[in-house]
Specification:
The chain is α+β, with helices and mostly antiparallel strands. The chain has ten helices and 15 strands. The strands form four sheets. Strands 1, 10, 11, 12, 13, 14 and 15 form a seven-stranded mixed sheet that branches. Strand 10 and strand 11 form a beta hairpin. Belongs to the D-alanine--D-alanine ligase family.
Amino acid sequence: HGGIGEDGTLQSLLEAEGVPYTGPGVMASKTCMDKVATSLALNHLADLGVLTINKDVRRKEDLLKTPIVDIWHELTSKLQCKTLCVKPARDGCSTGVARLCCAEDLTVYVKALEECLLRIPPNSFSRAHGMIEMPNPPPEILIFEPFVETDEILFSSQSTNKNADRLMWKGNSRWVEITVGVIGKCGSMHSLMPSVTVKESGDILSLEEKFQGGTGINLTPPPASIMSTEALDKCKQRIELIANALQLEGFSRIDAFVNVDNGEVLIIEVNTVPGMTPSTVLIHQALSEQPPMYPHQFFRKVLDLGSERFL
């Protein structure tokens, strides 16, 4: 997950030796590892309800030698937003992603890059947040995007009334963050059931919330109180459009925001080699299929898809 395992390097070595492998091929891997290239490859789908987030790409060295106040003004003016999301341009993992609310936050982030910090401690920025793991070595190219506001979906474990709705969601913003697995052959990818992640703290999901057992809560499928079946079906159709446009095959995971009213999808990133821990959300999603696809069937299918391509 990430690095040479996800950017086409290992895939090309395996192909050269005639060794079958799971997941997308060399070109799709290269494209999806680069968030800017991913956006460009999907631009033509805007009329079909697949949207991309405006981006501004900056080199680390330029950030270090330009006055931060000037950079902040340029970015917020160009992207027409008040708060920014910063992330490494070429990393399939969730490291280095942070919300920046002011020029001082950008100063802290750039200093972390300069000092090659492995993590930014909790609450280093103006807005409360958890630990932010940083890429090692620091990324040479960074992407700045408008920060997409979503209302947190909170789960109350304190409720004493068993019949009470334990989910709390304001719904002022009609966008929620989803993650969804896709599986199949190139050109005919199938979308599994999307999951919404219940955030436990801060705006950016921590690595623990994404990957480690027992700390993140994923709801599969999204509750009907949040998203209608009709919007969910449209969302899945658009996820399949994305997967086929990017020439994904085998299996991958797509992170996006979805509009709960019309199923429009705003793409965040595509993981061509998803992190596969025992708590991976793809297992829950496969079990939500009709009929359910049990873990051994899911992995057998992935292996079969991988070997069939190289026959």
